[in-house]
Design brief:
Chain lengths: ~220, ~325
Amino acid sequence: MSWWQELISNPVIQQKFPEATLETVYMVGISGILTGLLGVPLGLLLHASSTGGLTPNRPVNAVVGFVANIIRSMPFLILMIALIPFTRLVVGTTLQWQAAVVPLTIGAVPFYARLVETAVRDVNPGKVEAARVMGATRLNIVRHVLLREALPALVSSYTVTVIALLGYSAMAGVIGAGGLGALAISYGYQRFDNGVMFACVVVLVVLVVVVQAVGDHLARRLDHR
Amino acid sequence: MSAPRIQISGLRKVYGSGDRAVVALDGVDLAVAPGEIHGVVGRSGAGKSTLIRCLTLLERPTSGSVVVDGVDLSTLSEQRLRTARRAIGLVFQHVNLLDSRTIAANVAYPLEIAGVGRSERRRRAAELLDLVGLGDRADAYPAQLSGGQRQRVGIARALAAEPAVLLCDEPTSALDGETTRQILALVRELRDRLGISVIVITHEMAVVRQVCDTVTLLDGGRVAQHGAVRDVVADHGSRLARELIPVPELPVGAERSLLEVSFDDARTPVREVLAVLAGLGAGVQVAAGAVEQIAGRGVGRFQLDVPAAERDQVTTALRAAGLTTTEATR
């Protein structure tokens, strides 16, 4: 029997592998969408409230920035465990991929928000000034200048964030979230099943490569500089 | 004289307060008539940038008024200001186009903000791009254009909302000489065609020589000199006359004096000036000289290196010939 036949006839791979892959995709997909939806406004808030922003507000900036820094400074494994009571409150359980969405999102939002803040800060202030002189409202400036001009950078940093989420999702597997991480730990590591380990690694690599390629392509399409 | 398009009175801008207060503008008065191109010159730190920011109300003046087309911008609320700003089209040194939009969409952006409909925006953008000579590049992105072309787009965009005044902030300082000439020629042509008033803020005297009708020299936040370009260049020894007709700085030998002579060919044609200089005798040397065409006439300065003993005699001869002369300060 060749190694390939051995791999695909492995009962773990036949029965658990497709499901685990889907769980990883769901967990990363849903938390990725939530991260995008929450991270962009939060990043904009960080930028707009900073000195020299559209509506400078020191207290808001300090509080939001502080919370973001606290969450970002915590190792994900610890954040996840610390959030267990909160997760139970929101989802009703702390098992399955659905539960993992909560810590994954909370962990990734501040990360992405900081990247959004940086991307928006890099938009040449002259462009904002030009729009102001033309009579643009703050909303005009946010939509047409800040977000639109930063879009290629927003997409690139979103790609980075989703890939980080893939890494976190494997960690979430350790405490019962399922997915490829859980499979790799319980079969590949604890039962010395190298075939399962290998399959998990390959699929994760493929996922990362695909996400990166799609992100790069989109960013390039949007960038007219 | 018709009422000025722009009237700035007693404009003061102070940054900070108390001991650390910095006075950027200290009572500036300035008026620009319809269809006039006015240059504002001065060194870095003279208050040029602050003046632009106060004119567009990007900064609120500490005191004084900015009246554009009869409306005092300095008294308006932020909301009213948004509409009133459309009376001013601003052209930036670094153009500041939106990289994510085609140049037609950039030109149309002020109209989009003003709530003009899509088809009207497209029509106006095409018209404006034709006006600045870029009609065939409507679908290009800013990154695909040269610096001079980008500045043309910047000018088209500034004109989109049909402003009364075109305000140009160092419009050619990032451009090479030939492109500078083309952009300035365009500004002049637009003024002739649209009757728009123009303020050009610049540190380049060449810009004043080429396009301006009137000029203001700012120094330390105050107006140091102002007037029609043809009058200030004829004002012998004045700062603007010196800077508009530059001659090199020269060392003077012992027992010699440097005399500065200026002329205006409306009174004394250049060939007569040269004849007078030639007749001054062997001891007199022309150390430096410049003749410029400014505001449609020839004006010039010469520096004469004269033996100290002959100074008074030479001065008398020059004055008799209708030339203005003084001893150059060294």
